[in-house]
Structure formats: structure tokens, C-alpha cells
Amino acid sequence: MDRDLCVGCGVCLFQCGRDVFSFDPEAEKAVVARPQQCVDCFICEEYCPEQAIRVKVGKPK
Q1: Distance in angstroms (rounded) separating the CA atoms of residues 39 and 33
Q2: For the chain, what are the domain ranges?
Q3: What DSSP element (H or E) covers 46?
Q4: pTM value?
Q5: How far is CA 56 from CA 37, 59, 60, in A?
Q6: pLDDT tens digits along 24-61
Q7: CA–CA separation, 52 vs 8, rounded Å?
Q8: Residue spans of beta strands (DSSP E) within 1-61
Q9: What are phi and psi of 38, to 5 degrees?
Q10: Distance CA 30, CA 1 (A)
Q11: What dotted CATH number matches 1-55?
């Protein structure tokens, strides 16, 4: 996740069915809180309006 591009809209939080993301209230942005739960479905990447998310298949997230 590119935190500079993230605007804190929360789309990733609602689209991710694996609960990978959480919201950082201090930064007012999403964070990858549970990368081990990611199944490389690309839904977060597809729905992010700011293109702040890039899923890296087969690599530690």
C-alpha cells in the first residue's frame, strides 16, 4: 500500500473479504494490518480509486 496515495476513503476495508486492512485513525488512512490473510484476489487493488494498492503475488505482503 502506498500511504502517500491513500486518501483514507475506506473502500479497501469494505471490499476485502479477508479483513486484511484496518483504519489508522491517527493517520486517517488504511493500513495492511493482517497481510497473512491476503489470498491475492486483487479486489482491493481493482476497487482502490487512488491506485494506492498493488498486490504482489507470491511475495510477503
Answers
A1: 14
A2: 1-55
A3: helix 43-47
A4: 0.86
A5: 13, 6, 8
A6: 999 999 999 999 999 999 999 999 999 999 998 875 54
A7: 10
A8: 21-24, 29-32
A9: -70, 135
A10: 9
A11: 3.30.70.20
